[in-house]
Amino acid sequence: MFLQKNEQTAFFEKLSIIISDPERVLRDEPMVNHTTFRIGGPADWLVLPASVEEITAVLAVAKAAAVPVTVLGRGSNVLVSDKGIRGLVLRLGKHMSRIRHEGTTLFAGAGASLGDVSRYAAKLSLTGLEFAIGIPGTIGGAVFMNAGAYEGEMRQVVSAVTAICPDGGLARYCGEALAFSYRHSVFSDNKCLICEVELQLTPGDETAIRAKMDECTFRRNSKQPVELPSAGSVFKRPPGYYAGTLIEQTGLKGLTVGGAQVSEKHAGFIVNIGGATASDVMNLIREVQSRVYEKFSVRLEPEVRQIGEP
Protein backbone atom coordinates (compact mmCIF):
# COMPACT_ATOMS: atom_id res chain seq x y z
CA MET A 1 0.00 0.00 0.00
CA PHE A 2 1.45 3.38 -1.03
CA LEU A 3 -0.57 5.49 1.48
CA GLN A 4 0.13 5.62 5.20
CA LYS A 5 -2.56 4.15 7.44
CA ASN A 6 -3.98 7.55 8.40
CA GLU A 7 -3.96 8.59 4.74
CA GLN A 8 -5.82 5.41 3.79
CA THR A 9 -8.52 6.21 6.33
CA ALA A 10 -8.81 9.79 5.11
CA PHE A 11 -9.02 8.65 1.49
CA PHE A 12 -11.73 6.11 2.29
CA GLU A 13 -13.69 8.77 4.19
CA LYS A 14 -13.56 11.09 1.18
CA LEU A 15 -14.85 8.33 -1.07
CA SER A 16 -17.64 7.63 1.42
CA ILE A 17 -18.70 11.29 1.33
CA ILE A 18 -19.01 11.17 -2.47
CA ILE A 19 -20.81 7.82 -2.40
CA SER A 20 -22.73 7.36 0.84
CA ASP A 21 -23.97 3.84 0.02
CA PRO A 22 -21.52 1.50 1.83
CA GLU A 23 -22.25 -1.28 -0.67
CA ARG A 24 -20.72 0.85 -3.44
CA VAL A 25 -17.44 1.72 -1.68
CA LEU A 26 -15.43 -1.37 -0.77
CA ARG A 27 -11.98 -1.96 0.75
CA ASP A 28 -9.70 -4.93 0.09
CA GLU A 29 -12.27 -6.32 -2.31
CA PRO A 30 -11.40 -9.72 -3.88
CA MET A 31 -11.37 -9.27 -7.66
CA VAL A 32 -12.34 -12.92 -8.06
CA ASN A 33 -15.86 -11.58 -7.43
CA HIS A 34 -15.64 -9.08 -10.28
CA THR A 35 -14.11 -10.95 -13.22
CA THR A 36 -15.59 -13.55 -15.56
CA PHE A 37 -12.40 -15.61 -15.11
CA ARG A 38 -13.12 -15.80 -11.35
CA ILE A 39 -9.45 -15.00 -10.80
CA GLY A 40 -7.73 -12.11 -9.06
CA GLY A 41 -6.36 -10.87 -5.75
CA PRO A 42 -7.84 -7.94 -3.80
CA ALA A 43 -8.22 -4.35 -4.94
CA ASP A 44 -7.29 -1.77 -2.31
CA TRP A 45 -10.56 0.04 -3.01
CA LEU A 46 -13.43 -0.70 -5.37
CA VAL A 47 -16.08 1.91 -6.17
CA LEU A 48 -19.36 1.41 -8.05
CA PRO A 49 -20.38 4.88 -9.30
CA ALA A 50 -23.94 5.71 -10.32
CA SER A 51 -23.42 8.95 -12.26
CA VAL A 52 -20.93 10.98 -14.26
CA GLU A 53 -20.79 13.41 -11.33
CA GLU A 54 -19.74 10.63 -8.95
CA ILE A 55 -17.10 9.41 -11.40
CA THR A 56 -15.67 12.91 -11.80
CA ALA A 57 -15.57 13.48 -8.04
CA VAL A 58 -13.93 10.10 -7.35
CA LEU A 59 -11.30 10.71 -10.03
CA ALA A 60 -10.51 14.12 -8.54
CA VAL A 61 -10.04 12.67 -5.05
CA ALA A 62 -7.86 9.86 -6.41
CA LYS A 63 -5.74 12.31 -8.40
CA ALA A 64 -5.23 14.56 -5.37
CA ALA A 65 -4.06 11.57 -3.31
CA ALA A 66 -1.92 10.19 -6.17
CA VAL A 67 -3.93 6.96 -6.06
CA PRO A 68 -3.87 5.05 -9.38
CA VAL A 69 -7.23 4.21 -10.94
CA THR A 70 -8.18 1.09 -12.91
CA VAL A 71 -11.45 1.12 -14.85
CA LEU A 72 -13.40 -2.11 -15.13
CA GLY A 73 -16.73 -3.14 -16.61
CA ARG A 74 -18.10 -6.62 -16.14
CA GLY A 75 -14.59 -8.01 -15.86
CA SER A 76 -14.46 -9.96 -19.12
CA ASN A 77 -11.37 -9.95 -21.35
CA VAL A 78 -9.13 -9.24 -18.34
CA LEU A 79 -6.79 -11.26 -16.15
CA VAL A 80 -6.23 -9.74 -12.71
CA SER A 81 -2.95 -10.68 -11.05
CA ASP A 82 -2.88 -12.90 -7.98
CA LYS A 83 -1.53 -9.98 -5.94
CA GLY A 84 -4.54 -7.90 -6.88
CA ILE A 85 -4.78 -4.25 -7.88
CA ARG A 86 -3.08 -1.45 -6.02
CA GLY A 87 -5.11 1.72 -5.87
CA LEU A 88 -8.74 2.18 -6.79
CA VAL A 89 -10.90 0.13 -9.14
CA LEU A 90 -13.73 2.09 -10.72
CA ARG A 91 -16.26 -0.53 -11.75
CA LEU A 92 -18.91 0.59 -14.20
CA GLY A 93 -21.80 -1.83 -13.86
CA LYS A 94 -25.52 -1.86 -13.17
CA HIS A 95 -25.46 1.60 -11.61
CA MET A 96 -24.27 3.06 -14.93
CA SER A 97 -26.45 1.00 -17.25
CA ARG A 98 -29.33 3.22 -18.35
CA ILE A 99 -30.47 2.66 -21.95
CA ARG A 100 -32.67 5.09 -23.88
CA HIS A 101 -33.39 5.97 -27.49
CA GLU A 102 -34.25 8.79 -29.85
CA GLY A 103 -35.53 7.43 -33.14
CA THR A 104 -33.01 4.90 -34.42
CA THR A 105 -30.24 6.09 -32.08
CA LEU A 106 -29.64 4.22 -28.82
CA PHE A 107 -27.85 5.81 -25.86
CA ALA A 108 -26.34 3.32 -23.41
CA GLY A 109 -24.47 3.92 -20.17
CA ALA A 110 -21.00 2.39 -20.20
CA GLY A 111 -22.02 -0.20 -17.62
CA ALA A 112 -24.93 -1.60 -19.64
CA SER A 113 -24.40 -5.21 -20.69
CA LEU A 114 -24.19 -5.93 -24.41
CA GLY A 115 -26.98 -8.46 -24.01
CA ASP A 116 -29.32 -5.88 -22.48
CA VAL A 117 -28.54 -3.32 -25.19
CA SER A 118 -29.09 -5.93 -27.92
CA ARG A 119 -32.45 -6.94 -26.45
CA TYR A 120 -33.49 -3.29 -26.06
CA ALA A 121 -32.74 -2.72 -29.75
CA ALA A 122 -34.71 -5.83 -30.73
CA LYS A 123 -37.80 -4.59 -28.87
CA LEU A 124 -37.63 -1.44 -30.99
CA SER A 125 -37.20 -3.50 -34.20
CA LEU A 126 -33.75 -1.98 -34.71
CA THR A 127 -31.15 -4.11 -36.44
CA GLY A 128 -27.35 -4.01 -36.39
CA LEU A 129 -26.49 -5.22 -32.91
CA GLU A 130 -27.58 -8.85 -33.12
CA PHE A 131 -23.96 -10.07 -33.23
CA ALA A 132 -23.35 -8.73 -29.71
CA ILE A 133 -26.08 -10.70 -27.92
CA GLY A 134 -23.73 -13.26 -26.37
CA ILE A 135 -20.57 -11.21 -25.85
CA PRO A 136 -20.01 -11.27 -22.07
CA GLY A 137 -19.21 -7.66 -21.31
CA THR A 138 -20.41 -4.09 -21.03
CA ILE A 139 -20.97 -1.65 -23.86
CA GLY A 140 -18.11 0.50 -22.54
CA GLY A 141 -15.66 -2.38 -22.57
CA ALA A 142 -16.87 -3.46 -26.00
CA VAL A 143 -16.19 0.00 -27.44
CA PHE A 144 -12.81 0.17 -25.69
CA MET A 145 -11.58 -2.90 -27.58
CA ASN A 146 -13.91 -2.77 -30.61
CA ALA A 147 -15.39 -6.13 -29.66
CA GLY A 148 -16.90 -8.27 -32.36
CA ALA A 149 -18.35 -11.64 -33.28
CA TYR A 150 -20.02 -13.34 -36.23
CA GLU A 151 -19.01 -10.79 -38.88
CA GLY A 152 -20.03 -7.86 -36.66
CA GLU A 153 -17.95 -5.28 -34.78
CA MET A 154 -18.77 -2.32 -32.56
CA ARG A 155 -17.34 0.13 -35.07
CA GLN A 156 -20.18 -0.76 -37.45
CA VAL A 157 -22.81 0.66 -35.10
CA VAL A 158 -21.11 3.16 -32.77
CA SER A 159 -21.70 6.74 -33.89
CA ALA A 160 -20.38 8.67 -30.88
CA VAL A 161 -18.93 8.22 -27.40
CA THR A 162 -19.01 10.59 -24.42
CA ALA A 163 -15.99 10.24 -22.15
CA ILE A 164 -14.37 11.88 -19.15
CA CYS A 165 -10.90 13.24 -19.90
CA PRO A 166 -7.96 13.14 -17.46
CA ASP A 167 -8.57 16.81 -16.62
CA GLY A 168 -12.11 15.97 -15.53
CA GLY A 169 -13.84 17.51 -18.54
CA LEU A 170 -16.27 15.75 -20.86
CA ALA A 171 -15.42 15.05 -24.50
CA ARG A 172 -17.50 13.64 -27.34
CA TYR A 173 -15.77 11.41 -29.89
CA CYS A 174 -17.34 10.82 -33.32
CA GLY A 175 -16.39 9.24 -36.64
CA GLU A 176 -12.68 8.92 -37.37
CA ALA A 177 -11.80 10.30 -33.93
CA LEU A 178 -12.87 6.94 -32.49
CA ALA A 179 -9.90 5.35 -34.33
CA PHE A 180 -11.44 1.90 -34.51
CA SER A 181 -9.36 -1.00 -35.78
CA TYR A 182 -9.16 -4.71 -34.97
CA ARG A 183 -9.72 -5.04 -31.20
CA HIS A 184 -8.68 -1.41 -30.72
CA SER A 185 -10.09 2.10 -30.34
CA VAL A 186 -8.81 5.54 -29.38
CA PHE A 187 -9.68 4.66 -25.78
CA SER A 188 -7.14 1.84 -25.85
CA ASP A 189 -4.45 4.54 -26.03
CA ASN A 190 -5.75 7.65 -24.30
CA LYS A 191 -6.75 7.91 -20.66
CA CYS A 192 -10.35 8.96 -21.22
CA LEU A 193 -13.09 7.04 -19.43
CA ILE A 194 -16.12 6.00 -21.49
CA CYS A 195 -19.40 7.13 -19.90
CA GLU A 196 -22.04 6.79 -22.61
CA VAL A 197 -22.18 5.22 -26.05
CA GLU A 198 -24.39 6.26 -28.97
CA LEU A 199 -25.38 3.54 -31.42
CA GLN A 200 -26.85 4.27 -34.84
CA LEU A 201 -29.07 1.36 -35.85
CA THR A 202 -31.41 0.59 -38.74
CA PRO A 203 -35.16 -0.16 -38.75
CA GLY A 204 -35.83 -3.86 -39.30
CA ASP A 205 -38.24 -6.69 -38.67
CA GLU A 206 -38.37 -7.78 -35.03
CA THR A 207 -39.00 -11.42 -35.89
CA ALA A 208 -35.97 -11.53 -38.20
CA ILE A 209 -33.84 -9.68 -35.65
CA ARG A 210 -34.72 -12.13 -32.88
CA ALA A 211 -34.11 -15.09 -35.19
CA LYS A 212 -30.60 -13.81 -35.90
CA MET A 213 -30.00 -13.26 -32.18
CA ASP A 214 -31.14 -16.82 -31.47
CA GLU A 215 -28.78 -18.11 -34.16
CA CYS A 216 -25.83 -16.21 -32.66
CA THR A 217 -26.70 -17.49 -29.19
CA PHE A 218 -26.96 -21.08 -30.43
CA ARG A 219 -23.61 -20.86 -32.24
CA ARG A 220 -21.93 -19.39 -29.18
CA ASN A 221 -23.37 -21.92 -26.73
CA SER A 222 -22.64 -24.90 -28.97
CA LYS A 223 -19.06 -23.96 -29.82
CA GLN A 224 -17.77 -22.01 -26.82
CA PRO A 225 -17.19 -23.13 -23.20
CA VAL A 226 -19.88 -20.91 -21.71
CA GLU A 227 -20.36 -23.37 -18.84
CA LEU A 228 -16.93 -22.58 -17.33
CA PRO A 229 -15.34 -19.30 -16.17
CA SER A 230 -13.17 -17.67 -18.82
CA ALA A 231 -12.16 -14.23 -20.05
CA GLY A 232 -13.37 -14.90 -23.59
CA SER A 233 -11.05 -15.44 -26.54
CA VAL A 234 -7.49 -15.45 -25.23
CA PHE A 235 -5.59 -14.53 -28.40
CA LYS A 236 -6.08 -12.04 -31.19
CA ARG A 237 -6.59 -13.48 -34.64
CA PRO A 238 -3.21 -13.63 -36.42
CA PRO A 239 -3.31 -12.42 -40.05
CA GLY A 240 -4.44 -15.26 -42.30
CA TYR A 241 -5.18 -17.67 -39.47
CA TYR A 242 -7.54 -18.43 -36.60
CA ALA A 243 -5.84 -18.74 -33.22
CA GLY A 244 -8.13 -21.54 -32.07
CA THR A 245 -7.43 -23.59 -35.18
CA LEU A 246 -3.65 -23.24 -34.78
CA ILE A 247 -3.87 -24.25 -31.12
CA GLU A 248 -6.06 -27.25 -31.91
CA GLN A 249 -3.81 -28.38 -34.77
CA THR A 250 -0.87 -28.19 -32.38
CA GLY A 251 -2.69 -30.74 -30.24
CA LEU A 252 -3.16 -28.49 -27.23
CA LYS A 253 -6.86 -28.96 -26.45
CA GLY A 254 -7.12 -29.98 -22.83
CA LEU A 255 -3.57 -28.86 -21.96
CA THR A 256 -3.68 -27.95 -18.27
CA VAL A 257 -1.54 -25.90 -15.89
CA GLY A 258 -2.87 -25.91 -12.34
CA GLY A 259 -6.53 -24.92 -12.56
CA ALA A 260 -6.22 -23.39 -16.03
CA GLN A 261 -6.99 -25.43 -19.13
CA VAL A 262 -7.09 -24.93 -22.89
CA SER A 263 -10.77 -25.58 -23.48
CA GLU A 264 -11.61 -28.99 -24.87
CA LYS A 265 -14.62 -27.38 -26.55
CA HIS A 266 -12.87 -24.44 -28.26
CA ALA A 267 -9.07 -24.18 -28.27
CA GLY A 268 -9.19 -20.38 -28.49
CA PHE A 269 -10.36 -20.25 -24.87
CA ILE A 270 -8.60 -20.88 -21.58
CA VAL A 271 -11.02 -21.89 -18.84
CA ASN A 272 -10.88 -22.01 -15.07
CA ILE A 273 -11.62 -25.63 -14.20
CA GLY A 274 -11.32 -24.91 -10.49
CA GLY A 275 -9.01 -22.81 -8.35
CA ALA A 276 -7.01 -21.38 -11.26
CA THR A 277 -4.60 -18.55 -10.51
CA ALA A 278 -3.39 -15.78 -12.78
CA SER A 279 0.02 -17.44 -12.72
CA ASP A 280 -1.54 -20.68 -13.97
CA VAL A 281 -3.14 -18.82 -16.86
CA MET A 282 0.00 -16.90 -17.81
CA ASN A 283 2.14 -20.04 -17.72
CA LEU A 284 -0.40 -21.78 -19.94
CA ILE A 285 -0.51 -18.82 -22.35
CA ARG A 286 3.28 -18.86 -22.66
CA GLU A 287 3.31 -22.62 -23.26
CA VAL A 288 0.66 -22.30 -25.98
CA GLN A 289 2.53 -19.42 -27.64
CA SER A 290 5.79 -21.37 -27.61
CA ARG A 291 4.37 -24.58 -29.04
CA VAL A 292 2.28 -22.88 -31.73
CA TYR A 293 5.31 -20.85 -32.82
CA GLU A 294 7.45 -23.99 -32.87
CA LYS A 295 4.97 -25.74 -35.19
CA PHE A 296 3.70 -22.89 -37.39
CA SER A 297 6.16 -19.98 -36.89
CA VAL A 298 3.16 -17.82 -35.97
CA ARG A 299 3.26 -15.59 -32.90
CA LEU A 300 0.01 -15.47 -30.96
CA GLU A 301 -0.69 -12.12 -29.34
CA PRO A 302 -2.89 -12.15 -26.22
CA GLU A 303 -6.23 -10.39 -26.49
CA VAL A 304 -6.86 -10.66 -22.75
CA ARG A 305 -5.56 -7.63 -20.83
CA GLN A 306 -3.36 -8.26 -17.80
CA ILE A 307 -4.04 -5.84 -14.98
CA GLY A 308 -2.88 -5.52 -11.40
CA GLU A 309 0.33 -5.77 -9.43
CA PRO A 310 2.96 -7.89 -11.23
Automatic annotation (TrEMBL):
Ordered alphabetically, the record's keywords are: Cell cycle, Cell division, Cell shape, Cell wall biogenesis/degradation, Cytoplasm, FAD, Flavoprotein, NADP, Oxidoreductase, Peptidoglycan synthesis
What are the BP-aspect GO terms? cell division; cell wall organization; peptidoglycan biosynthetic process; regulation of cell shape
Which Gene3D superfamilies does the record match to this protein? Answer: 3.30.465.10, UDP-N-acetylenolpyruvoylglucosamine reductase, C-terminal domain, Uridine Diphospho-n-acetylenolpyruvylglucosamine Reductase, domain 2
The catalysed reaction is: UDP-N-acetyl-alpha-D-muramate + NADP(+) = UDP-N-acetyl-3-O-(1-carboxyvinyl)-alpha-D-glucosamine + NADPH + H(+)
Q: Which SUPFAM superfamilies match?
A: FAD-binding/transporter-associated domain-like, Uridine diphospho-N-Acetylenolpyruvylglucosamine reductase, MurB, C-terminal domain
Query: Where is this gene product found?
Result: Cytoplasm
The EC number of this protein is: 1.3.1.98
Q: Which residues form the FAD-binding PCMH-type domain?
A: 38-204
Q: Which residues are named in the active-site annotation? A: R183, S233, E303
Q: Which domain of life is it from?
A: Bacteria
Q: Name one Pfam family in it.
A: FAD_binding_4
Kindly tell me the pathway this chain contributes to.
Cell wall biogenesis; peptidoglycan biosynthesis
What's the cofactor? Answer: FAD
For this record, an example GO cellular component is: cytosol
Which GO molecular function entries does the Swiss-Prot or TrEMBL record give? Answer: FAD binding; UDP-N-acetylmuramate dehydrogenase activity
InterPro entries, per the entry = FAD-bd_PCMH, FAD-bd_PCMH-like_sf, FAD-bd_PCMH_sub1, FAD-bd_PCMH_sub2, MurB, MurB_C, MurB_C_sf, Oxid_FAD_bind_N
Which family, according to UniProt? Belongs to the MurB family.
Record's function text? Cell wall formation.
Quote the protein name from its UniProt record.
UDP-N-acetylenolpyruvoylglucosamine reductase
Q: Identify the species of origin.
A: Anaerosporomusa subterranea
Tell me the name of the encoding gene: murB
